[in-house]
Amino acid sequence: MTATGGPLAGVKVVELAGLGPAPFCAMLLADLGADVVRVDRPGAGGADDLLNRGKRSVQVDLKHEQGPQAVLALAQEADVLLEGLRPGVTERLGVGPDHCWELNPRLVYGRMTGWGQEGPLAHTSGHDVGYVSLTGMLHLIGRKDGPPQVPANLLGDFGGGAMYLAVGVLAALLEARVSGRGQVVDAAIVDGTAHLGTMLWGFFGSGGWSTERGTNLLDTGAPYYDVYETSDGGYISVGALEPKFYAELLDKLELTGKVPDRDDATKWPELRETFAEKFKQRTRQEWTEVFDGSDACVAPVLSMAEAEQHPHLAARETLVRRDGRVQPAPAPRFSRTPNPAPGAIAAPGAHTEEVLRDWGLPQDLLDSGAMQSAPR
User: Fold this and answer.
1) Catalytic positions, written as ranges
2) How many other CB atoms are there within 10 angstroms of residue 360's CB atom?
3) What is the average per-residue pLDDT within 106-131?
4) What is the DSSP-derived secondary structure letter of residue 53?
């Protein structure tokens, strides 16, 4: 039999509204079936933010004398609380871990910051680009003799931040079901980003990775792991690392026996020039057709506007439409407890009365003005 609602059905999550990685983590848990209630401030925006999909929203005025009690009432019924504020802020508001554990000792308290809960920079402002800079990971992204290239905010905020918060929260949730006790999950973007680089740190420690950017196997140093411009201004990516894949690349390019040994790094400039000249002879679509179905590990570099139309992504419904907007489908996928379809974006305060009823919270929180309703 197939269960419904996703693998986290029945798990209750409170999210204190914030920006970026913590909301993404909460969205991911909602995608997996958790009942996520986002606590928004009165007058908050976010009604058009995809990171708020699949959640419900209540409005709480934390400046109201009963505002903290409203958050604590939610925490008392929850399995997880997520926050992305500076260290010490929730404690000052009266909704820190110890406040919550007095009412709900099994609560997992997930904290998302850039620098972590302690350390010299813990109370300093920052953004993704600064966090990944200090870990050494930004330095390695880019071409030889060029500057580091900023990978949007995917590497730090979402890769090293939100995903590590999600893994940590789920691990702590499993442990709490055995021990009956919650704990703080201190997810720092600097920690997660450094951890993402474990393989490269291994290469570096063994002398297999140079700090000279753009000279290594996976950083555009190797001509058979790079991107090349096509005749129409598009780009093709090449990732033919293994010898058998590389042999197929040469075959499709009609270059077998016509290029230098790829294992001789001194010949890489010559090999790169040959590849560049070859890819410039046809359009991106023509090269896509040449390599279609092959194991040469070659793919067109698609824009976000184009990705939805790719046959593979379309077949898997990797990108879906809801309310006229393209968005990624929930991931990963489960065989017995499939994820629900992407939920609607939660408008701030649209579910206050509904959550009060469903979570069994006292009506006087609404009557007092500590919690407020807003139209759906």
Assistant:
1) 127, 157
2) 10
3) 97
4) B
* Contacts (Cβ under 8 Å, ≥6 apart) of 279: 228, 229, 230, 236, 287
Residue with tokens 């058979």: 224
pLDDT, residue 44, reads 84
- Between CA 305 and CA 315, with CA 310 as vertex, the angle to 5 degrees is 125
Q: How far does Cα 193 stand from its chain's mean position? A: 12
* Location of structure tokens 């980003």: 193
Say how far apart CA 65 and CA 73 lie, in whole Å: 14
Which whole-number Å values give the CA distances from 198 to 20, 153, 202, 207, 273, in the listed order? Answer: 24, 19, 6, 14, 32
Mean per-residue pLDDT for 301-326? 95
Q: Give the integer Cα–Cα distance in Å for 110 and 128.
A: 19
Residues 336-375 pLDDT 10s: 999 999 999 999 999 999 999 999 999 999 999 999 998 7
Confidence of residue 43 (pLDDT cuts 50, 70, 90): confident
SS3 at position 322: strand
Q: Taking the model in full, what pTM does it have? A: 0.95
Which pair of tokens denotes residue 170? 């789920």
pLDDT tens digits along 195-229: 999 999 999 999 999 999 999 999 999 999 999 99
Q: What is the DSSP letter of 115?
A: S
Mention every residue, 6+ apart, whose C-beta is less than 8 A from residue 86. 113, 123
